[in-house]
Structure formats: structure tokens, C-alpha cells
Amino acid sequence: MSEQKIIVCLDDDPDDRELLTNAIKDVDSSFKVINGDNGIKGMYILEQLKAIGQKPCLVILDLNMPLMDGEQTLTEIKKDTDLLNIPVVVFTTSALETSNSFFARHGVPVVIKPVRYGSIVDQVRELLSYCD
């Protein structure tokens, strides 16, 4: 049996986390989604996964989070040789041009969160392609 694919989703908005988790489960229920509400929690989750020999197939980041935002979290991920090759996607309601250029330099796509659930599901299908 193959190991379950894990997605780490970091967003400070509980409604957005729930919508994204539900959309992932609707597209492919075999994924395990681990949620966190800021980058510090996200780095803790990633460290815990490393400690048990698992890596997520994708990290989904929000830009604006308390304690450690999306840019700071990506910077920490990229400092860790065990994590730097994990695909990261920014999934946000507001993307400033400065943020877009920061993430583009790191090869990280920035996706604006759609308003309609059907559009979120369509975006999730695309996001899950990073896990192949």
C-alpha cells in the first residue's frame, strides 16, 4: 500500500481552511490535509512530519497570516534542505505586486482565491497536480 499523500494548508481564516480542505476531499478523498493558522504552526507541522520521515507533497500558503506571514514562511522552508524541494503554492485573496515578484523569484505560483466553490474545486484540481 502506498503512503498517504499529505498537503499542509496554512491560512489564518478558518472558513478558508475548511473550504480548501473540503474542496481537496471532494476532488480526491485519499489526501490527508493538515491545517495550520500561521507560519510558525506550519513550520512546526513540517518539522513533526520530518521527524516521522514524511513530507507533504504540497504546501499551500496564505499571504497574510499573523506571527509569520507567507513570505516569511516560504523563506524558512527554503532554508531547510529537507523541505526546499516541496512544491509551495500561495493561495490568497490579496496579492500585492511586491509579493508576486518575491514568490516568482522562488518559482512559487500565486493563485487568487476564487469566490465560488466550484471555481475553488477547479483550482484545487490544478493544485493537486503538484502532488504527482
Q: Could you please describe the fold and organization of this structure?
A:
With 132 residues, this protein is an alpha/beta fold. The chain has one domain: Response regulator (Rossmann fold, 3-Layer(aba) Sandwich). Helix content is 44%, strand content 17%. The chain is built from 5 helices and 5 strands; from the N terminus they run βαβαβαβαβα. A 5-stranded parallel sheet has the order 2-1-3-4-5, sandwiched between helices. Helix 1 packs across helix 5 and helix 2 runs parallel beside helix 3. It is globular.
Head-to-tail CA distance between termini: 16 Å
The major sheet is characterized as: 5 strands, parallel
Rg estimate, integer Å: 14 Å
Backbone shape? globular
- State the helicity in percent bands: 40-55%
Per CATH, which architecture?
A: 3-Layer(aba) Sandwich
Strand content: 15-25%
Show unreliable segments: none
Count of DSSP-assigned helices? 5
CATH H level: which superfamily? Answer: Response regulator
Q: What would you call the structural class?
A: alpha/beta
Q: What's the CATH topology label?
A: Rossmann fold
Kindly report the average pLDDT value.
90
CATH class: Alpha Beta
* Strand count: 5
Widest β-sheet, arrangement of strands: 2-1-3-4-5
Count up the domains.
1
Order of helices and strands: EHEHEHEHEH
Question: Any descriptors?
Answer:
132 residues; Rossmann fold; single chain; alpha/beta
Short description:
The protein has 132 residues and is an alpha/beta fold. It is 44% helix and 17% strand.
Helix and strand arrangement:
Elements: E1 6-10, H1 14-27, E2 32-36, H2 39-51, E3 58-61, H3 70-79, E4 88-92, H4 97-105, E5 110-112, H5 117-128
Parallel strand pairs: 1-2, 1-3, 3-4, 4-5
